């Protein structure tokens, strides 16, 4: 059991700007900081008017309802309140997300939101309020030193609650920014956070946790994209038989590992890859189909939080660590090794270039639905080393076993330009 006052945090008596999401985690974060003697200012960040968007009945933190609910979550008579607009920064993150979706990629904007909005624009706004520190309700921890000096003497660690650990979403934050950040609930479990909120009489104690992507929230992803992007129609092709199974309304709304909703098959059908040039979604029957599994992946230039591990990789040419290829996954072992791209994943030319700073990883156990432009976050035990966006998955187990050679031959030629 943990102390109700929370972990020992630096800078007692200093002013802290707490990012308010409207949920219980940020409310308890503010509460713990008050108990530890900080002067707390609650800051609501608004990026755009989500209330005007079609189907947005559960705003993801940017609408007035979240603002009011989050501020009511504070203890009566406690901190001051302020509102911050991300402005061009938020619009830039959103625009880049749409541009990547329009090219058939599957980006995760949460990492960019944290790097450019919560721990850049918000830090700047906090300085205007006279707050030298920013705190959020993320389930992650910080430690002085460690990691070979990464983060200017601050290391990012996994949250104590393994089911809620959010270090994945923080892995691309600038190391210098982490020196001015506090994560007051990172040492607690979600259940402990709710108990603290209930004991303090916070209005958010029983509020449902937020879910979904940064500015999308709980809305249907395909419907959301349809408000901003013209569809990329294509066709579904079975990797085993090569048969066309139907028409895909929009390739941008389909991602690796997803069930695209094709009827008539004896087993559930899953997307195993996309050729965005030829407008093909490759599918296979069964969640355990070998076309969903691969043992290698190509990562784009990494963002390092641990200078020591980056130096180790540069010195010896390989690094053994663990990885998460999506939030909620438990870290798995990986290391750098040789690479051959999957025939079932073909991107636009601007997304297929390979640079000398890219990394190749081999998974000890096959990775599932490794998806271009998702983040691969690297770990050494509790320590988060940084993140790299996935460029391409390696050949699937289905291809290595001699699956659909005709598709592989066609796409290998195109992949040679990568």
Automatic annotation (TrEMBL):
<dbReference type="Pfam" id="PF03054">
    <property type="entry name" value="tRNA_Me_trans"/>
</dbReference>
<dbReference type="GO" id="GO:0061708">
    <property type="term" value="F:tRNA-5-taurinomethyluridine 2-sulfurtransferase"/>
</dbReference>
<dbReference type="InterPro" id="IPR023382">
    <property type="entry name" value="MnmA-like_central_sf"/>
</dbReference>
<keyword id="KW-0819">tRNA processing</keyword>
<dbReference type="InterPro" id="IPR046885">
    <property type="entry name" value="MnmA-like_C"/>
</dbReference>
<dbReference type="Pfam" id="PF20258">
    <property type="entry name" value="tRNA_Me_trans_C"/>
</dbReference>
<comment type="function">
    <text>Catalyzes the 2-thiolation of uridine at the wobble position (U34) of mitochondrial tRNA(Lys), tRNA(Glu) and tRNA(Gln). Required for the formation of 5-taurinomethyl-2-thiouridine (tm5s2U) of mitochondrial tRNA(Lys), tRNA(Glu), and tRNA(Gln) at the wobble position. ATP is required to activate the C2 atom of the wobble base.</text>
</comment>
<feature type="domain" description="Rhodanese">
    <location>
        <begin position="10"/>
        <end position="60"/>
    </location>
</feature>
<keyword id="KW-0808">Transferase</keyword>
<dbReference type="GO" id="GO:0000049">
    <property type="term" value="F:tRNA binding"/>
</dbReference>
<keyword id="KW-0694">RNA-binding</keyword>
<keyword id="KW-1015">Disulfide bond</keyword>
<keyword id="KW-0820">tRNA-binding</keyword>
<protein>
    <recommendedName>
        <fullName>tRNA-5-taurinomethyluridine 2-sulfurtransferase</fullName>
        <ecNumber>2.8.1.14</ecNumber>
    </recommendedName>
</protein>
<comment type="similarity">
    <text>Belongs to the MnmA/TRMU family.</text>
</comment>
<dbReference type="GO" id="GO:0002143">
    <property type="term" value="P:tRNA wobble position uridine thiolation"/>
</dbReference>
<dbReference type="InterPro" id="IPR014729">
    <property type="entry name" value="Rossmann-like_a/b/a_fold"/>
</dbReference>
<dbReference type="InterPro" id="IPR004506">
    <property type="entry name" value="MnmA-like"/>
</dbReference>
<dbReference type="InterPro" id="IPR001763">
    <property type="entry name" value="Rhodanese-like_dom"/>
</dbReference>
């Amino acid at each position: 059991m943990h102390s109700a006052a929370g972990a020992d945090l630096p800078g007692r008596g200093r002013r802290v700007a707490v990012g308010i999401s409207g949920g219980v985690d940020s409310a308890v974060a503010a509460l713990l900081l008050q108990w530890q003697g900080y002067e707390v200012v609650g800051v609501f960040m608004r990026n755009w008017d989500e209330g005007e968007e079609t189907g947005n009945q559960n705003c993801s933190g940017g609408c007035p309802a979240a603002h009011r609910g989050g501020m009511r979550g504070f203890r009566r008579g406690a901190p001051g309140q302020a509102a911050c607009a991300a402005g061009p920064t938020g619009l830039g993150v959103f625009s880049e997300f749409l541009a990547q979706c329009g090219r058939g990629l599957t980006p995760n904007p949460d990492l960019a939101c944290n790097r450019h909005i919560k721990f850049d624009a918000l830090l700047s706004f906090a300085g205007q309020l006279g707050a030298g520190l920013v705190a959020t309700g993320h389930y992650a921890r910080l430690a002085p030193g460690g990691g070979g000096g990464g983060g200017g003497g601050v290391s990012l660690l996994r949250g104590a609650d393994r089911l809620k650990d959010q270090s994945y979403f923080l892995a691309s934050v600038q190391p210098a920014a982490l020196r001015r950040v506090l994560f007051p609930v990172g040492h607690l479990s979600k259940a402990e956070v709710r108990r603290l909120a209930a004991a303090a009489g916070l209005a958010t104690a029983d509020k449902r946790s937020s879910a979904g992507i940064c500015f999308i929230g709980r809305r249907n992803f395909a419907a959301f994209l349809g408000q901003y992007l013209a569809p990329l129609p294509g066709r579904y092709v079975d990797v085993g038989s090569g048969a066309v199974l139907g028409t895909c309304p929009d390739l941008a709304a389909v991602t690796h590992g997803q069930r695209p909703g094709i009827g008539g098959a004896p087993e559930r059908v899953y997307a195993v890859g996309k050729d965005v040039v030829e407008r093909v979604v490759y599918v296979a029957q069964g969640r355990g189909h070998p076309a969903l599994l691969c043992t290698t992946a190509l990562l784009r230039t990494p963002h390092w939080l641990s200078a020591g591990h980056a130096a180790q990789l540069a010195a010896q040419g390989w690094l053994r660590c663990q990885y998460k290829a999506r939030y909620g996954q438990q870290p798995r072992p990986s290391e750098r090794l040789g690479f051959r791209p999957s025939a079932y994943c073909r991107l636009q030319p601007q997304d297929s270039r390979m640079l000398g700073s890219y990394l190749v990883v081999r998974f000890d156990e096959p990775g599932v639905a490794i998806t271009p432009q998702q983040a691969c976050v690297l770990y050494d035990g509790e320590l988060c080393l940084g993140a790299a966006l996935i460029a391409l998955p390696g050949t699937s187990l289905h291809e290595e076993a001699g699956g659909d050679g005709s598709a592989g031959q066609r796409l290998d030629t195109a992949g040679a330009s990568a």
